[in-house]
Structure formats: structure tokens, C-alpha cells
Design brief:
Layout: H1 2-17, E1 26-32, E2 39-44, E3 52-57, E4 60-69, E5 73-78, E6 83-88, E7 94-98, E8 101-105, E9 107-113
Antiparallel strand pairs: 1-2, 1-9, 2-3, 3-4, 4-5, 5-6, 6-7, 7-8
């Protein structure tokens, strides 16, 4: 009885501690309102360092690369021209830096999870 209870307790602790253990695919898309930088959409499919993020700017797609992730923010950049975007995972707000200009984008988030 004690052994079964102990094994069940450990299994539940492991299951509770693993975020998205049964998640096979996660997709996030941000549709941005009109802005002076021309950023229209952001597609985020893999949230790991060095993963690609597709950003549509003035009807042209650019491949950004994730360079920093923590519990609150995902940061990704394009090297030419140098653009840095940061998505706050909690509030879903997007901030960016382009040519020494700091800006905030108004975007609507769509998430898809399997």
C-alpha cells in the first residue's frame, strides 16, 4: 500500500511539473495593426534558442532567429537590417528596436495547440 501510494505520488509530481507534456505542436501567430515599420505578421512555431521566426514586413517575409528566452520574454533578431523584437509571453505585447528607435506593436495573438 505504501509503495503504491509513493509511486503514485512521484508520478503525479512529475506529471504536474512537466509543462505541456503531451503537447505535440504549438503555433502562435501575431497579426499586427498598421505601424510605421510595416510589420504585419509574426509566426512563432518553435520556442527554442536559434529557432526561426517568420516576420512579414511590407508583404515580404523575413527569417528572424531567436537569441534569448526566459520565463517572460522571447527575443529574436534579424541581422540585416538589424531589427530586434521581443514578445512578452505573459501579456502578449511586442516591443522592438530598429535604428535606435524603440517601438511597441499592437498585435492580436492567435494560438493553436495539438
Amino acid at each position: 500500500m505504501k509503495k503504491t501510494y509513493f509511486i503514485s505520488l512521484i508520478f503525479l509530481a512529475l506529471l504536474y511539473g512537466c509543462e505541456d507534456i503531451f503537447l505535440r505542436f504549438k503555433y502562435e501567430k501575431f497579426n499586427c495593426q498598421n505601424n510605421k515599420f510595416g510589420i504585419e505578421k509574426i509566426w512563432l512555431t518553435n520556442q527554442k534558442i536559434n529557432s526561426n521566426v517568420v516576420v512579414s514586413i511590407k508583404n515580404q517575409e523575413f527569417i528572424f532567429q531567436i537569441f534569448d528566452i526566459n520565463d517572460d520574454v522571447i527575443s529574436f533578431k534579424l541581422t540585416k537590417p538589424e531589427i530586434i523584437l521581443k514578445i512578452n509571453k505573459v501579456s502578449k505585447t511586442i516591443k522592438g528596436i530598429y535604428q535606435k528607435n524603440i517601438f511597441t506593436l499592437n498585435c492580436v495573438n492567435e494560438s493553436f495547440r495539438i
